[in-house]
Fold this sequence. Notes:
Layout: H1 5-26, E1 32-33, H2 40-45, E2 67-71, E3 77-78, E4 81-86, H3 95-104, H4 106-112, E5 123-127, E6 135-140, H5 144-150, H6 153-170, E7 175-178, H7 190-207, H8 209-212, E8 217-222, H9 225-234
Parallel strand pairs: 1-3, 2-8, 4-6, 4-7, 7-8
Antiparallel strand pairs: 5-6
Amino acid sequence: MPISRAVQQNTLAYITRRIRSAHTSTHTMPATPLSEIPTLTLLYKLSKLTPSSTTVSGATPKYNDKISLIRTDITKLQTDAIVNAANESLLGGGGVDGAIHSAAGPDLVRECRTLNGCDTGDAKITNAYDLPCERVIHAVGPVYGPTKRQGIHTQLLNSCYTKSLDLMVVDGCKSIAFSALSTGVYGYPSQEAAETAIKAVKGWLDEDEERAGRVERIVFCSFLQKDERAYEKFIP
């Protein structure tokens, strides 16, 4: 069922209010270094994460020291790169996209203007300017309604994750934090999006062990509880 313009606007307004409220109360909060972002191994050890009661396809502890799960403001993470839930213009918007542009400062949008936009399912990389990370990777996720009907929504979302990982490696980054792509105004159901994201990342790691060895950490960063719970269901 297509997402109405009213629903899109209301969802965007809600997410934007939540993020602005968080920034108002945490704008002086220091950056979170990679060493303070818990791995899955640590989350299991501290009983903050429990194994799924049902068998999840592709579940493996192989990458538990390499993958992290955290619910926080992605603009505070001191990973080498963060992944922005961008739109095709790359010029900023609401929600996480707006928060990243706001925290990075005006130089980010100036650089983005030189990139000539970005296709859905693709990603482009920029400097991070005033953010605590080194790079911002702008990934354009699919709008769920139209791409669902076309049967290409999973392919496009999967591509956002794998192309972002390709860019981080080419740029020499060793750690990356993903926002929950397409789960805001673009209407992608959180559980379906989390399952796709996890499969994409694990598949990318399995594809080339030498390349995977150059990656220190991959962080799934949620801002809303619905996204955090979705990752917790499929991450084990």
